[in-house]
Every structure is written in structure tokens, then in C-alpha cells.
## 1
Amino acid sequence: MTYFEILKKLKSLGSKKAIEGMARFGIRPKTKVYGASMADLRMVAKKIEKNHALALRLWNSGVHEAQILASIVDKIEKVTEKQIDQWIKDFDSWDVCDQVCMNLFWRTPMAFRKAIEWSKREREFEKRAGFALMAVLTWKDKNSSDAKFKKFFPLIEKESTDERNFVKKSVNWALRQIGKRNTTLNELAIKTAKEILKIDSKSARWIASDTIKELESAAVRKKLA
């Protein structure tokens, strides 16, 4: 499929009703939105060979769904640090942020370093990208040592007071995911959550309470055992 065929296909898969549904879930990007679902995007992606030049063009299209598709069809060996630093500046919705981290960013050799770096950013979706990447690495990267994930705890605690919705939810996501990786990290995540619970912040208390509830649950205990 060519670039223009892809955009035409994405537009045909969307609907006004779907766009309204996205808005109810907090997805209100400034880019053009067609309303195509993730299932639709993955279906389209199966018809496209991995292509870095095409991915860059799709990203620069200014179309919400095309940007997510770009993260699926890009060639990981061609992805540069300059590229991913530029892409996060374009993030304007939580779904693009999370999908790009899940589909592409976690696979880059600079993923752990970027998670730490971006978590210190000020802009909402750039900061979210840092914590989303932490969460995704915990879930996707099966080989990294616990030491790499332990470095995330101080950052999670420090940023737990950020009251912005899309930041606090990503901080919470990161802490919960780390705590579900293994028993050692589970104990450390709960310990971190209990420290966060002491902070005089509505956001921090929510993050900590939600994390403790899940990580101390019978379901998680059984899974880790």
C-alpha cells in the first residue's frame, strides 16, 4: 500500500461515532482524527512491509491514526534517538503516547535511559512517555536485571505529586507493573508505595493506595508464587 492509499483506507475505517467515543475516554488530539480502531490499524499494518521512510511520512501526516500506525510499521534498526525525541514532542493524547511506547520505543537500545530522561520533563505527554515506557519495559523486556528497574523507584516517588491526570495515571501504571514483575520487585514496589502514601498530596495518595491494593492482592501473590 502506498502512503496515500493508507490514508484513504484509514479514513474509510473511521466514523464520527467512533471519534465521539474516543473523546469520552479522554482522547481529544489536536491532530486530524478519523476514528479507526486499534484492531483496524493492526489489520492495515499486516498489509504493509516494515518501512522506515513510510513510517516517518505517516508520522508527519498530522493524522492521529497514521501516527500510531507509524510506530507499528517502522524498522527498529533505523530508529534514531533524534527521531524518538522529536516524536514525543508531538504527543497530544495518551493513546498515541502509550501505543508508540508499546509498539516501538521499548525496543530501542536507549529505552531505559529515555524512560528516566523523559520522566523529568515538564510537558504532560512527554512526562507520561517516560512512565509509560517504564511500564512497558517491565512488561515486555524479559531479560533485563532487577537493577535496571530499581532505578525507576526514586523517579516514581518524586513525580507522584503531579496532579495532572495523564501523568499520575502513568506513574501509577509504572509502579504497578514493576511490582508484578517478580517477588523482589513486588516487595520494593509496595515499600515505595507506602512511602508515597505518607506524602501530603491527593495524587500521591491515590497512586499509593491503588498500587498497594493491587500488589498485595491474592491474584498478584498467586501469579508471582
Note: The mean pLDDT is 96.
## 2
Amino acid sequence: MRIAIVGGGPAGAYLGYRLASRGIEVAIFDDSHPREKPCGGGLSSFTLRKFPILRELPSGNVGGRKIFLVSPSGREAMVEGVEEGWNVSRAKLDGFLLERATGEGVRLIKERVIALNALKSDVGWKIKTSKRSYRADMIVGADGVNSIVRRTLVGPFRKEDLCFCYGYFTNVTKELEDFEGIMKFFRGMMGYAWLFPRETDCSIGIGTAVENQKRARKELEIFLKKYAGNAKIISTWGALLPSARTAGFFRQPASGSNWILIGDAAGHVNPVTGEGILYALWSASLACDALERGEPGMFDALWRKEYGWDMVKGAETRSLFYNHLGLELSIWLAQRSRTFGEFLYDSINSEIEGKNFTKCLIKKLPSSLIECMHAKPS
């Protein structure tokens, strides 16, 4: 086979679809997709605009233009934007993208890859599954946080570059239908709890540093009782996700002469918001460009140019973003200023590039402060 993709989630499936539509021979190795995955399932408005194929998703999504924010002290503000974001079922999303890939001729091999070895003279790869062995010219790791491709080529993630996510899938009760989404922040703990209603269920969870697992579980119980007390728990889940703690993480290579890592396997998840589906698709798109040119090693230059700055800056400023005083002030402003609320909404929905964040904030502040002065006391 020409190109072997390990992993059939959004990154692997979308890459397979893009390559096959260009007449390139592709196989995807995956023994589990599509499936529901521990994930909020949020698609930002920027993601929907950048990847129009998502608009063709036949079912499994709920849209909205409002996000309910809760500060560490419990201060609440509803922020609203112009562009719509979606909450999606990962089973529906992943299945849709995988179906589009196989429809273009991608060969889906429903086997788990258990070993990977470079052939002599750098001419390709031997891929061993639980059933047999295969050969490929090039290999792409799209197999998530526990990527066997990543472990083989650059080593596993360090503990400090992972975050712990824990939560529930629940039914969607009447009290949840009033919200497109809720995000609750905490004092002394980076990360947030979320509640995202979807088409047939609701994703309620929390994400934070691995060392905060015990506290995170307690905080989630409090959050669940307050904002979804009547919800019926369908299932409980837990997972690890990439979350680079330092900018140095992004100096690691994600490609070579005959290999590429994309999506979670590359660690390309926003260090501040935890948004991953956007970068799964974005990295897949750039990997397609590199592979189509026959130069997989150029993938690193492509992603660093397109979204690398946001990754690096996110890792550098994450602690500043989650400063509890800053969160209290931001949500206090959002209570009193529609302009500032729109700014927060756009920030969460990836509508503001990291390199333009400060410039945009300075531009919005005068109007926001004037609106605050004329706002009625809460």
C-alpha cells in the first residue's frame, strides 16, 4: 500500500478522504471506530466555517450561539455571538467522516496495529496487526493519545503534557434545553467543567491537569448537582488527552522522510481550551498537502506556519488565562457588557487568532467599559 494511516478518528478519516479523492492509494487501520468517545463534542464556529464538509453531517448535532460562563466564585454570565457552534455525537461525526473516506476508495482494515518497524534503507514500513503483517511506503499516526506510531517514532507523551478528563453522558432533560453550553472555571485549578447538550444525550465533564484528578471528581459532582440535578446518568467515562504544558513541547518533530503524526497523536490540541477536533482536521488537511507533494517532512513547516503560533502562545499563557482574578473580572464584565460577552464568545469559538488576541482585547475594552458604566446593578 502507498500510505497507511493508523487510526480512523476525525484526523485519520479526513486525511484518508482527502488523499483518496486525489487518487492516492490509502488504507486505514482501525478496529474500533466509529464509537462514542469521552469528549465534549464541541465544534467551534471557526471549525464549521473552515471545514464545510461538517455541514453535511446528517444528524447528531445541536447548534447554538450562546455559552453560559461561571466564574470560580460562582458569578454567571450568558455570552452570545454571531456565528453558530455545534455540539456533536462523536459516534455520528466519526462515522460520517469514515464513511466519506471509504466512499472515496479508502481501504478500511479493521485490525489493531501492535507493532511498527522501519524497513531497511528507509524504504517503507512493516505493520504488524493482531492477525497479520502489511507493508506501506509511508505511515501516518492518527491513533490518539496512546499512539503506537508516536511511541515508536518520537516516544510517548510525558505525564506533564497530558490532562485528565472525567465525566458522564446523560439524558437531555428540560432544564438542560435552555443552554447551548455551560463552562465552569475553578480557583487554583487550570481547566474547566462543561455541560454540552447534544441531539440525543448530554456530555457533562471536567478536564484538568493529571495531578488534580481527586479534586476534579469532587468539583464535577458539585457542578452536576447544581446545573443538571435531574439528569439521568447513562454512562461514566474517563480519559487522558494531550495538553502541552510548555512551549518547548512544540519543538518536537511531527514528521520525517516517510512518516507524519496528526491530531492527538501529534499533541495538536489547544493548550488553553482543549479544542481538538479543529486541529485533527486542520493537521490532516496539511498532511494531505505534504503527502500529495511526496514530501511528508514538510508537514512540520506547514502546521507551524498555519497554527503553530497559537499552540506555542497557548502553552505560554495558559496559567494567565486561568488566573482566578482575571476570570472573575472577565465574567463580571460579560455580565454588564454585550461587547465584552461577544469577545469572550469569539475567543472560545476560535474566532480570534492567538496572535491577535491582545490587539482585539484593547480594541473592545473602551466600548465594554462604557457599557458597564451604563449597565443596571446586578
Note: The chain has three domains: 3-40+90-157+246-319, 42-88+159-242, 320-374.
## 3
Amino acid sequence: MRADSGAVAAAHAHQFEDAAQQRDAVTLGMWTFLVTEILFFGGLFLAYAIYRWSFPSAFALASRQLDITLGGVNTVVLIASSLTMALAVHAAQTGAGRALLGFLLLTILLGGVFLGIKAVEYRHKFEEHLIPGASFHMPVSEATLSGDIPPDQAIAAGVPATALSAPAEIQRHAQIYFSLYFAMTGMHALHMVIGLGLLAWLALQCRKGRFTPAYFAPVEIVGLYWHFVDIVWIFLFPLLYLVGRHA
């Protein structure tokens, strides 16, 4: 894939002395933006830490309502997308336009798979009445409440449905957990959607031959953003899915 004649001329905007200065400026700008994102997600993580410390038993029981298999698969998918994004940046640096487009499209595909799995998880929570609100109800067996077996094993063992009811206090605390779950994963999903939009724009520009070894800053900057979103999930997965799993 060949770059158009204006690609090199557009290697840096008129307000910059050269392409290196422009690259430093946009990189600094992205890192500054990511710091604000860290502060934003940090508030959610702090709220989670406070409530988890306050209601450890309810949070552990609520966490067991999540599908750890789907969460684990999504973790692998995002790690793989970070690899393809890194390969896309390398392809842009070396001027491999065809490889760049391929890795961008593969990253978009993996991001779409992640959001699809997350949509399935959300649908399950809606069907199981685990959406915070008047209809919220978390089914938990007596064996689970005593810490002997998780709820999924209790159901598989044939525990009567009438026994699957958590006390009102645990129900209230579990709603706090799921409120944080939907807030944190929902905000992460929103960032994923934005990232997919940016990747689609990069793919379009790549098809037009806009990126060369002299001008690949947009690919690198979007790569930083995508890696940040992936790292956020690396923290979300153990915090939300693995609560009390060691016990």
C-alpha cells in the first residue's frame, strides 16, 4: 500500500518545527489525558475498596453470581488485542501498510468480541434480576451463606429453589456491589466503544495511505489509549470476578 504524495508533507503541522517535535507534543498530550482518566477510574476503585472493606461477605457472595469463564475469556481477548495493537504500531513505524491495516482490523474484531461477550453477561444479569432496583434479587443457598459451596455448585447439586434466598441485609449490600459492577464495567465498555471508533478511523486513513515511517503518530497515540483501556480491565477482572475465590 503506497502513501499519497501529501503524506510526507503532512508529517507535521505548521505550528511545529519538525515531526519529532509534533510527536513529542501529541504524546505528552495523550499521557496528560490518561492521567486524568486514571484519576477518574481511581474514584471508582476507591469507592469499590471502601464498600468491599465494609461488606466483605456480601461482596464475595455477589461476585460468585458473575460468570468467571466469560470474564476470563474476555481478559484473554483484551490481552490479545493489546498484542495486535502493538504489532500495528510496529507496522506503522516500518511502513508496512498492508500489515498495519490487518492488525488494526484484527484489533477491532477482538474489541468487538469483548463487547459482545459483555453484552451477553449484561443480558444474563437482567434475566437473573441482578440489576439494582426494586426487582433485584440475589439467589444464594444456605450452604453458600455458610461458606461451604458457591451458589452455582449449590444449584447443580439440586438445592431446592425455596432455599435460594439471601437475607435482606445481604441483598442491600449486594445491590451496592452490582451498582459498582455496572458503573465500572459500563464506563470501561464506553471507553472500548470510543477506542473502536478511533481504530476504525485509523483503518480508513491507512487505506488512503496516510501513514508512513515519517508520520505514524496517530497510530501510536491511539495505541496508548487502547493499552490503557486494556490495563483498566486487568484490574477490573480480579476485583469484580475473583472476590473471595481463594477462600
Note: The chain has nine helices and no strands.
## 4
Amino acid sequence: MRIYESVFDISKKFLKKNSPVCINEAGIEHTTMLMLKEGPTKFPTIKIQPDISEYQIYKSVLKEFVGCAINYCYWYGSSSIRPLDCSSGKMYELVEQSFEGWLDDFDAVIYKLIELLSVNRFPLLEEREKHLKELIFEGENFCNKVLHIDKHDHLFKSLITTFPGYASDIFLKRASLFFIQMYRQHGWFESAMYELPVPSDYQVPKILKRLDCMEYDHYLTNIIQHEILIPKGSKEECSIRAATIIACKKLQEKTGWNVSDIDGWLWLKRKEVNTPFHLTITTDY
């Protein structure tokens, strides 16, 4: 079994008897029709630009590799408490800044980014520093492989065995997201887009809940509405993420879309919904 396939098995186990979250098949059917009516969101790729060099593509892979390593938790205690506008967009701006003037000194990039994250008061700074520093020794070598190896299963295993930060999540959200981003930016790993689990985070389950693809029990609904922190690894938190993965797999099978299409369509609707999302302080997402 490929490593990422275990995510689906784990997800199904969390949704067995007495789960606080369940899949609503009627909501899945309705959302499928809505998706097919609207059509998937297509992301422009760097690959279609004829004047871009392999060096520039390699640099873009490095940037995404670094960004995905720390793409998690941008708030303190409440989703509205974000010093200096901490967000994924802000984080990627800092990644861009850390690569300015890059002269093949990857160590300097990492330390510059840690400095920028500190100045901008990002939460979980010690964890982010740890995850960034573990990229230093083999990060460039791995990204070079990404350019020249088209077998995603081999690279996926290499990613989570070489860099423990990427493997720490039972649902492998950031690892899946890296390959999805490579597909979106360069058109690579197309076959993987029909095999990988959706990146299960805060926003996608919020949209699935709004679309009635998932249902929460009364207790879970109450703590989310009152913005009460849900412990990482708890049955409630894992069930939300597990249901997200299974619901998206069902949508994928019914629409024929790949995981990038499903994730993109849902994630881009996040600002249309003002209801609170579940709050868990974690480095997984």
C-alpha cells in the first residue's frame, strides 16, 4: 500500500459508530450538481510560459517546498486574532522576501525567513523554526528530484521520510498540498491528483458543512459556534478532518474532477461563509 492510501483507511475508521461527524449523502448529491454546473477552477501554470528557465522553475519549487513546510495556524486563540495580518498570503510574501537576492545559499534563505516570521509575530514560531531548519540539509536535493522524477509515490515517501515535519500529520495535509501545488503551478503529477487525499484543514470542512455534505452532533456544533478550542488529536478534531477527506473523495468520484479541482472549488468559497470554523492549535494545517 502506498503511504497516502492509508489516509483514506484511517479516515473511515474515525467515521465509524459514535463519530461526532457524519457524511450527508443528500448534500453530496446536491453539491455534485452545483459543482458540475459551475465548473472547476483552473490554475494557470508556470510551465506554459516559454521564456522561463529550468533554474527559475527550480526556484519556484523550492519556494513552495518551504512554504508548505510551515503552512499552518495563523491565529492566536481565536481566528480573529492575527497580529500584523498573519495569514497564508502573508507567509508566502515573507517566503518571497527571503528568496530576494538568492545566490544558491539555501541556509541563508531559511534563516532570513525565520527572522521575518519572528518580526511579523507568527504563532507557533518555535515549531516553524524547527520545521524550516530540518529542510536545510536535504531540501535542495529533494527539490531537484521533483524536477526530474515523475513518480509521485516515490517522491511522496521521500518527502515524509526525509522531513519529519511533513510526516507529523496523521492525514498528511501539507504533504498532499505540496504535490497539488506542483500540479497547479507546473502541470506535474497529474495522475497523483486522482489518488491523493484532499488537504484537510480549517476552511474546507467549513464549506462542506455549509453545503450540508457533513453533519456535526450537537456538542461539536456548540463548541464550534462558541469558538472553543478543540484539542489536537481529539476524536472531534480528527472526525472533522476524516469526514472532509471522505466527503471530498465522494465528490471526486461523482464529478470526475481531480483533488486539485475539488479542493480549489471549495477553498475559494471560504469567504462566502461567515460562520466560525473549528479551532485547533496545530502544525498540521
Note: Strands lie at 21-23, 214-216.
